[in-house]
Design goal:
252 residues, alpha+beta, 2 domains
């Protein structure tokens, strides 16, 4: 039995998220449908590095599955892409050790969030950028981002609907932002993220950017553990799972 890891991209616009759901179109569902065709109707389960919500995109999601077929990585890539819809693409396939797990072996995830910061919307990018027409102070948002870096309890910055059990302590290596023309790019790198955490952090940084909150207030919010004190959860269409990193032996 071979274990195959795939590095995939998808446009999340027309998916109800990654995780398989009854009567809904999902990324996992389309991958498992493609694998069933390749395996003559037999079910093959796909294990992703983590979920993404409805409307969220992925530049480099990672998944694994097991198969008793003896195909080369290039053949797996070719076969899957022939069966998948055009809004999912396998960028790379490789055989990995039997001990590998796409979710549990993650060392670091990187998310990026994109905003169209102009008074008028860009209708052609409405599914890929969040239109935010207000003036924001990039310098203040950059300052506030540094308060998120390090190890903290992120209860304040995760959805009250989160089903995670146990600790909400997470470690972030980078929370930064930069402007490029009409776009603002946010970069968030960490060992793991709670439900809606990346989108709430961006929403909070935007509050700082509009001077509705001081950068140093971020530090105080960690201790309060109250979701109501943080910024809004920004919409899903600006969010991209940008990269999933493993130890070198599992490197994408």
């Amino acid at each position: 039995m071979a274990k195959i890891k795939c590095h995939i991209s998808y446009d999340g616009t027309n998916f109800s998220g990654l995780q398989i759901q009854p009567r809904e179109r999902t990324v996992q569902g389309e991958l498992e449908k493609a694998l069933a065709k390749i395996h003559k109707g037999a079910y093959v389960q796909v294990h992703p590095s983590g979920r993404t919500d409805k409307g969220v995109h992925a530049k480099a999601q990672a998944v694994h599955f097991e198969s008793d077929y003896n195909l080369t990585p290039a053949d797996w890539k070719r076969a899957l892409n022939a069966m998948l819809p055009p809004d999912i693409h396998v960028n790379q396939a490789e055989q990995v050790p039997a001990s590998f797990h796409a979710r549990f072996d993650v060392v670091e995830k990187e998310y990026r969030y994109y905003i169209w910061n102009e008074p008028e919307p860009d209708v052609f990018n409405r599914n890929y950028l969040y239109h935010y027409p207000y003036h924001v102070d990039i310098g203040k948002m950059q300052e506030a981002g540094r308060y998120f870096e390090g190890t903290h309890d992120f209860t304040t910055f995760s959805s009250a609907k989160a089903s995670v059990k146990g600790s909400r302590v997470r470690t972030l290596m980078e929370v930064s932002c930069r402007r490029g023309g009409s776009q603002i790019e946010f970069i968030l790198r960490g060992q793991g993220f709670l439900y809606n955490m990346a989108r709430i952090i961006v929403g909070t940084l935007l509050e700082v950017g509009r001077e509705r909150m001081r950068p140093e207030e971020i530090h105080e919010l960690f201790d309060k553990k109250d979701r109501q004190l943080a910024g809004d959860t920004v919409p899903p269409q600006g969010l991209y799972l940008w990269n999933v990193r493993y130890e070198d032996v599992y490197k994408l």
